[in-house]
Amino acid sequence: MARTVTTRQKALNTTLAWAIGLLIFFPILWTILTSFKTEGQAISDPPIFLFFDWTLENYAIVQERSDYLRFLTNSVIIAVGSTLLGIVVAVPAAWSMAFVPSKRTKDILMWMLSTKMLPAVGVLYPIYLLFIKLGLLDNRWGLVVVLMLINLPIIVWMLYTYFKEIPGEILEAARMDGATLREEILYILTPMAVPGIASTILLNVILAWNEAFWTLNLTAAKAAPLTAFIASYSSPEGLFYAKLSAASTMAIAPILIMGWFSQKQLVRGLTFGAVK
Amino acid sequence: MATQHSRAAARIMMAPAVILLLGWMLVPLTMTLYFSFKNYLPLRGGDLGWAGFENYTRFVTSSSFWPSILTTLIIVGGVLFITVVFGVLLALLLDRPMWGQGIVRILVIAPFFVMPTVSALVWKNMFMDPTNGLFAHLWRAFGAQPVEWMSQASLPSIIIIVSWQWLPFATLILLTAIQSLDGEQLEASEMDGAPALKRFWYIILPHLSRAITVVILIQTIFLLAVFAEIFVTTGGAFGTKTLSYLIFQRVLESQNIGLGSAGGVYAIILANIIAIFLMRIVGKNLDN
What we know:
heterodimer, A: mainly alpha, MetI-like fold, 13 helices, globular, B: mainly alpha, two-stranded antiparallel ribbon
């Protein structure tokens, strides 16, 4: 861009953008700050922004009273498990669609996308019933499977768009040199596909971590992840802002950090390649 | 060139994903269809036989049906309006030269990564609570009577919360689209003396139209399914019962499976109508 911008203009843009950015980020910042206050200071009027007695006691209370680590473990197992399982199923599928396309490839991709549009509430009871029959209600592995199926279309699509960018000539050359299908995948494709696979994993862990329909409806005490743990604060007793904040901060911190790394892939993954 | 051998291998490699998704789609869908024609009340007698189309007519003639449609439209429409309008403005701003652009972008995107139950509860309690919320403090500082957000302004409250979650998504996608805009065209129009508003209207907006359509369609699909934000704030009270929430209540709270399933079929049809438009755009892109 050759357009010249005066320093004044730039300063103006900067001020406005920072003001809006901070405004949008404020609820998160406020939650993090409140998590370090005492319950009394958390509700003080006028509100205290920085000059309060910083304390870690809320974090200790949350862990002690509600066994935060158990919910965290469930979240990690459900988010990571469903994503990895999805990758295992999706990599071969995306590979074959990207490198051995047939007339039906496009239709299959579109059909997979269409399954993502199925409203969860429309199939709530069947899944609920199947879970009871199979003894999977309030079971982490049941949720791993459901979230894997929910995100499978996105995983296949993302991998497909990444694999598409790997030049086919390289594969042909390997084939000429007598590489078998297995060797081709293992030694040529995989190294080139690793960045794409990593981005796909990142985005899908985030989506699974934050999923709040099936995790709320299919779990109770045992398998509940952090989404359900936070929801238990919807009918609290007594003062709870600081504790809610501490619990919330712990629930969103890992994903905020991962999310910032995956912002570029976010567009691609969530628009199914329609916006690049 | 793909050989016969690799074609066969490709089919086998695709099989697990296709079979799993096929099962995931067909099994529950068939069951929902089946239940929708049944009088099925697990807590009050169980399976009471076939109902024909009775569940379908009862679902749409119940007194909560039309209000739930209206609520759904208000929430989806309100959030779409806010996220698209502010998303375009914000994307335009973020595209301009400034200091610390990367950090501002991170600040703006952050809400998208906050899990729905957290954002709903933080907004409900720490901002919108009529006694201890920040808004109440703010209102009192100006001598005004604090608003009881969740009961007096329940729909605007939910729209604010959901818009906060989805504004980053719209902004990010629109920003990506703006950045792919041809700079020379803009420069040329600038040199020809086209005012900023005209440049926006005749060059930038047409260029963004596709991205805006994608944002609207994808958000609509997710917004029709908004659940946790209602579940932990009003629980469907104060006129916040959307179509999805109504179906959820029929199925899990009142355990009227037949009626809920008929509602589910309506929701599926509605989502599919929107999906068809989205798929057309995505499909076109696939050809290039």
